[in-house]
Amino acid sequence: MLSLIVVAMVTVAAGFVVWANDKRHQKYGVAVPAGVAASVGMLSWIIFIAAGFGYQPGLGPSMCPTRTVHGRCTARS
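^ that's the sequence the OP posted. Answer follows.
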């Protein structure tokens, strides 16, 4: 669920940047591009999570400084 919050914050920020850079932004409110970006981002997140493309522990880069041939961490913490 934290990833959904991050997606929402990033897409709303991108919507504000789009609004600020648009020359005709007086014609519509600041919430229009931010809302559209947030809704598209969150809908995409829901689709990706439902399709199985969510966070999978162990598949990302490891923080372990030493590794074996098979990529497993040899250091114990």
